[in-house]
Amino acid sequence: MSRRRFEAAAETVVAVLGPSRTKDLAGLLAIGHSRERALTELSTPGFREAVEQLYKAVAADGVRPEEAAAYLRGYVAATLHTRDAVQVRTVWSGPATPAVPVRATAQVLAEVIHESRHELLAMTYAARPYPTLTRALTEATARGVVVHVIVETLAGAAGLLAGDEPAKAFASVDGVRLWHWARDPASRERSRQHAKLAVADRRVLFLSSANLTESAAKRNMEAGVLIRGGDAPLRAAEHIMALQSQGVLRRLRP
């Protein structure tokens, strides 16, 4: 009997909640607690929709709660086992040497976006529209990926950025959720939102010196690391989501 809806919902829950909170959810399922009880007891930011979809899938596919709990625990165990195999690769753009192969930053960033299936988090200082990035983000939102982009603002940059607001680079991408660092100018004088990274499904983390601009991705000399597996992608995503829930990062109006 097909249980594709349940299996897809379980995969999403593990990606959103992480191993520890997923095991908590499995415990609630195993003793027959309702969706409302689960939503009350689990306080992970951004979890609500994933938990609701899981409970709906359990009912729709006729999965017994204790079986659903066992499946989640097994999925978590497999995920943790896979995470032990951490891969770290350096990413350089610019002049090549025999010692280090060069991979274009634009290519790696596009790969990370294309890999995302549920959630994509990105941070940048400057941003300018360019086709490769716009196309990859548009395709991601079209397949249901929840995309969050944190950008600096002209006001936050205090004269160090010129031209249009960095957020305007994403104006043509339907569904993208834009955020900024809502810092207090009095206590954070001359501070900048200078992080540049992308996290796909809390499994892949790309840290780079490159902003989300065409010159940074294609023409500049930039350096970064691409991390697959391990705790780093999950922790980076959790940190960003916590900053959002605390109001440190706030939504930008369209």
What's the gist of this structure?
With 254 residues, the chain is α+β, with helices and mostly antiparallel strands. 44% of the residues lie in helices and 17% in strands. Helix 1 packs across helix 3 (48-60) and helix 1 (4-30) crosses helix 4.
Q: Any overview of this molecule?
A:
The structure is a single chain. The protein is α+β, with helices and mostly antiparallel strands and 254 residues long. It folds into 2 domains: 4-83, no CATH class; 87-251, Endonuclease Chain A (Endonuclease, Chain A, 2-Layer Sandwich), CATH 3.30.870.10. 44% of the residues lie in helices and 17% in strands. It has helices spanning 4-30, 35-41, 48-60, 65-83, 105-115, 131-142, 154-157, 214-219, 232-245; strands at 87-93, 119-124, 146-151, 177-181, 197-200, 204-208, 222-228, 249-251. It has an 8-stranded mixed sheet, sandwiched between helices. It starts with a helix and ends with a strand. The model has no long low-confidence stretch (mean pLDDT 87).
Q: What is the 3D form?
A: globular
Q: What's the tally of helices? A: 9
**Reading side by side through the largest sheet, how are the strands ordered?**
1-7-6-5-2-3-4-8
CATH fold naming of the largest domain = Endonuclease, Chain A
Major beta sheet, specifics?
A: 8 strands, mixed
The total of beta strands comes to: 8
Point out poorly predicted stretches: none
Instruction: Determine the CATH superfamily of the largest domain.
Output: Endonuclease Chain A
Broad structural category: alpha+beta
* End-to-end gap: 45 Å
Q: What is the CATH level 1 assignment of the largest domain? A: Alpha Beta
Strand content: 15-25%
Helical fraction equals: 40-55%
Q: Any idea what the CATH architecture of the largest domain is?
A: 2-Layer Sandwich
